[in-house]
Amino acid sequence: MFHKMNIKQMNKEIHHKCRCTGQRFTFKEWCNYLKGNPPKVVHTYKEFCFNISDVCLTPHIKIDWAKKVCSFKVTTAQSDNGRWDFGLSYNFWTQGGCCGATYIGTLKDGYNTEKEAINAALNSLEENCQRVIDEIQFRGGDIDDDDSNEPEIRGSSVLPILKEAMRKIAHYKEVFSPRQLELF
């Protein structure tokens, strides 16, 4: 559909929508906004500060674990409507990724509690770590897709660290279980 639009139509279409402020930008407005030295923080709820892309710049850091070639971090943020979201970053030897905790604009999105959000993040981490373990085991411990001149780290030597990461994830799932009651 994009290729059939002319410039006039493109400028009328919403290019970016900020859920935390309700702002809507056409492509031209968005370009002008970015050129105009916009503020880093456009919305604050409690201690959570959000940018124009709805990403929390001041999330709670709930988990931060690292050992040699494996690491993961889980963050959380709450929106005005009480809903929670998680952010995470991880590196499991050959695979990694990250996403920030974002503003949740509707009650059907996000999570009811911070623990539910953390548990969802841990489920994602578990899936990603298991994928790397499975790949190493499938290939017999050797993944050689690196063309760099760095010294080779064999999959079989990383497997114990990945399994330790899985044990840590399981431990954190118990600690942050949404079904576990807290006494205040």
How would you describe this structure to a colleague?
26% of the residues are buried. The longest helix has 25 residues. The strands form three sheets. A four-stranded antiparallel beta sheet has the order 5-6-7-8, covered by helices on one side. Strands 1-2 form a two-stranded antiparallel sheet. Helix 3 packs antiparallel against helix 4. It is globular and about 55 Å long. With 184 residues, the protein is of the alpha+beta class. It starts with 6 loop residues before the first helix and ends in a 9-residue tail after the last helix. The protein is built from four helices and eight strands. A hairpin with a 2-residue loop joins strand 5 and strand 6. The mean pLDDT is 87.
